[in-house]
Amino acid sequence: MSKETLDGNFSEHPNANVDAYGVGGFVDDALDADVSASSFDLESRLLSSVSSSSVSSDASFPSLPSLSFVAAATYSRDGNDLVLTLEGKTVVVEGYFSAPTPPSLTTADGAVLTPEMIASFLRHGGQESDQAFYVSSILKNLLGDDKPLDKSAIGILEDVEGSVLAIRKGVAVALQNGDQLFQGDEITTNSDSSASMIFADGTRFKLGGEARIALDEFSFESSTSQGLQVLSVLKGAFTYISGLIAKSDPSDVQLRTPIGEIGIRGTKIVGKVDAEKATASITLLEGRISLQVAARRRVRDQPRL
Predict the structure, then answer these.
(1) Alpha-carbon span 117 to 258, nearest angstrom
(2) Which of 104, 201, 215, 219 is 20 to 30 Å from 246 at the Cα level?
(3) How far is the C-alpha of 211 from the C-alpha of 23, rounded, in Å?
(4) pTM
(5) Mean pLDDT score of the chain
(6) Cβ pair 181, 215 in contact under 8 A
(7) Could you tell me the pLDDT band of residue 139, with boundaries at 50, 70 and 90?
């Protein structure tokens, strides 16, 4: 499956307001990118729209309900069937896990759930890395001397407001300031909540209200600044400031959404996945990103006009 990749290099714009995103901070409204299931329509005119008519999904499976449903549903597996449940409504995708590689599934409003994203919210978090983690000086300094750092911790939670939960090994855990984060955690916020995460490589990620993300993969070797970071965002607003991993090897950082993937190239971005509208908005503050949909590959690299 080929991918459409669009790149753009931009400078920092420190004076633009992002209150509309619900996460606080600064953006340049002229760089707002409305990314929908039908096109990547960058309103800044930097990049042309991209048709998603060639998005790869298996036509033998019926469409899922709207993105608003799948973004809030509970994911489970019953034999080879995928089961989504929300407020008494159950959707069963029969035989989904029968294939060696499960396919991507589309929603009725055109969003796409890749098998990787489905797996992210199916496993219910708390997956430990195969490697032994170093003791991160960044995380250790944040915790101080009073609280030991778990060897598997990948980040620390800060600036918690309202109710923030982690689904970890199938159990919902209420999070507070200073709590440690682990690979595989599913993090959710309610309408009046927000939280900031600081990862072991210095990456900063802030969530606004009504958000749902998964901390899919994270590894980092402090001596070389190399590692891997993959996050899945089902819904909600966020800000992202890349850390050492993206500076060392940009291909090792990915943000997945039901609308497309964002490759990080040493970047500050603000984004929002609007589950009700099945759209995602991406705004570059600094650096470079790669937006990908399943289509033919084309690369553009343009300065800000």
Answers:
(1) 8
(2) 104
(3) 11
(4) 0.77
(5) 75
(6) yes
(7) confident
